[in-house]
Amino acid sequence: MCPNGSAQKPRIGVRLKTLRTMNALTIIQFWFDFASTYSYPAAMRVEEMAVHYGCTVQWRPFVLGAIFRAQGWNDSPFNLYPAKGRYMWRDLERLCAGLGRSFRKPSQFPRNSLPAARVACLAEPAWVANFVRNVYTANFEEDLNIAAPAVLLKCLDGLVADPAALITAARGQEAKSRLRHNTETAMELGIFGAPTFMVDNELFWGNDRLEAALEWSRTAQR
Length: 222
What we know:
By secondary structure, the protein is α+β, with helices and mostly antiparallel strands.
């Protein structure tokens, strides 16, 4: 207590250090492509789990196809290697069942994810998470063409005042530039697949590494 009986306030330096720690160490970047199979279960649980770890999710859409092309692939490795693809689909069924989520194998894989990713690049923090989850639901639960404007309108329903205007804006240069920048940044960071989680400068790849990424964030906050 202070001499006058009032509670002693923390020193300014201590308060600033605490604020810097909270701001710098509670961000988990979620790098995803809407066509990515394992990004689906990750997207549906990352935000809720992050809350328990005191983290804020930063949603970072990028173009996984560009990453694959840089590795010499002209298609998803799950199509290039049929045995790997068969395993992945069955594994995804098991994962979704364990999470209590519906799953329907898309009739087209991979789907064109560019229009949805460009919308996500224009999204506001208040609704980006809901939009991302809506798109994954459309792709991996409802088997809908997520590149179709009607599907994107449905995914934006109730989230923005004018969904049609936003879809139009997503066809513009600003949205394209943001997505291109995200993809180039992903390459610079050494990201080679999706989903990828970044905590500080640490990279964690795969839906099954989400817990490890969040545990790392807790360690970094000490």
